[in-house]
Description:
Helices cover 45% and strands 12% of the residues. The protein has a four-stranded parallel sheet with strand order 2-1-3-4, with helices on both faces. It is of the alpha/beta class. It has helices at 4-11, 15-22, 30-42, 49-56, 74-86, 100-111, 127-130, 157-170, 186-201, 218-233, 247-259, 277-281, 291-306, and strands at 61-66, 90-95, 117-120, 139-141, 176-179, 211-212, 241-244, 269-271, 286-288, 319-321. Helix 1 crosses helix 2 (15-22), helix 8 runs parallel beside helix 9 (186-201) and helix 10 (218-233) packs across helix 11 (247-259).
Amino acid sequence: MANLEQIARLSGVSKATVSRVINGFPHVSAETRLRVQQVIDEMDYVPNRTAVSLSKGRTQQIGLVTGTISEVIMPFLNGFIETAKKHDYQTVIYFTGDDPATELQAFEDLRSKRTDALVIVTCANPPSLLSTYSKYGPIVSWQRMPEHVIPSVAMDQGIGYCLALKHLLATGRRRIAHAFGRPESLNTQSRMRSYEKIMHEHGLPIAQELYFSSIYSVHHGEQLIQTLLERQKEGHELPDAILCSNDYVAAGILCEARRHGLSVPSDLAIVGFDDNEISRTLELTTVHNPIRAQAEHAFYMLAPMLLHTELKQSQLEYKLILRSTT
């Protein structure tokens, strides 16, 4: 295998000049650069990535830390990977399975300079612990974090939830069920507060018996309809609307409701969240969540330390998308 010394000898230059050509550094004439590159191509020389990283002081790699890989997070992963690639950064996905010890390995890799930065998609360890690794490299989170712990690009989903709630109330819905995600998440808590605040403002009762948590998937949505129908047999009134943690839950609710003869939206209005492709396919009313833009912002927040420059971030906002399920 060719090495720098052989390339330097065949090119008639020093090893330092060959290194500058390989790493794209200036102060090499166009003629010399061309001659060295021709020798590199002829010898099919591939630089040792570890050696290049050591010489540059960076790996050109960013770690994405996630406990799960699902349809909901894929737009964020794809958006970040594409944005990083545009700026010559590769991404490494650390799949933790929500295991705290496995997750910490990603942060140890940051400490040992195997990656230049980390992006938290979801985390299993306390944010206060993970934030201690910030001294080894920049860390940004998509998961909402307590203030002043780890910078986050996440938006307050309670704001988007308000848009959906006000729409449902305007259409005469009063008995609203909620398919929440993780009960301990800041977004779930924010959604609850938004619902209770708006119902209080309208002088309407708060139906906490219609709170359902850990509802993430199409299957969970189907199960929720089955649960509500079982409760109806026991004398409980069905809700007239359901607000969902994401569009996949809404899709499961819609399909199962129709299988049981419920008319949507006459008997039951359904609102998703995120505005994924499935919501457009099934004509689901939903809240547009700019996930890919948040992924771009995650890279932009890392840019000052990685690229030594500021990248302008656009204003992000939720939008209510009205379709046939309301």
